[in-house]
Amino acid sequence: NTTTYSKTNTVSKTTSEQSSEESIFGYKIRCMYSQNIVKKDDSFNLDWGLILFRQIAKPLYIGTGLGIKNHSTNQNYNISGLPYDNAMGSMTSLYIPIELGLRYPWENGFSFDIYTGPRFDFILGGKTEYKYRGKVVDTIRWSETKKNYEKENDKKLKSTSSIWVFGGGFNIYGFDVGFQYQLNMTDRDELDNNEDYWGVYIGFSYVF
Fold it and tell me: What is the spatial distance between Cα 15 and Cα 20, in angstroms, rounded to a whole number?
């Protein structure tokens, strides 16, 4: 009886270990608010993303995915002679992140992870609305802004940008909360949407 019990335990333990070792894939879903570090009050992003990751050597992983970002600005003017006193801008971008991270412990339950890597943004479109006393007096699309910039500066205005991300967070039974620092790697002299941002996010993650 003792021998049988010992063998059963061994088989059970081995099966459990194999199941743990086979849990090498996972996903993250994030909803993040990030704010311009320089301008703080008038420039921020809202983005949603899905990342699929794979364990390369416990607890290290590599991941990539797809997300969409909405960049918003709100600036007031108090200059005599201007036909407007406020400008509100919005821009939508698609982005692809690449993350190299560490998740510990690897299993679901309570864990933390830290990660870093590049992110590539592709502008889909946007507009700026100019207002006077709350009424819209003019609207300029991203395509017009790009065309005017290139004409005045005699150089191309990029529709893409690259960012280096540093982040980390906690996972409690599938629920994520964390932070990010986004370091701009694109020309800093082009408009005002290529500066550094910090952000906080909530979401879900799971390994299977």
Answer: 9
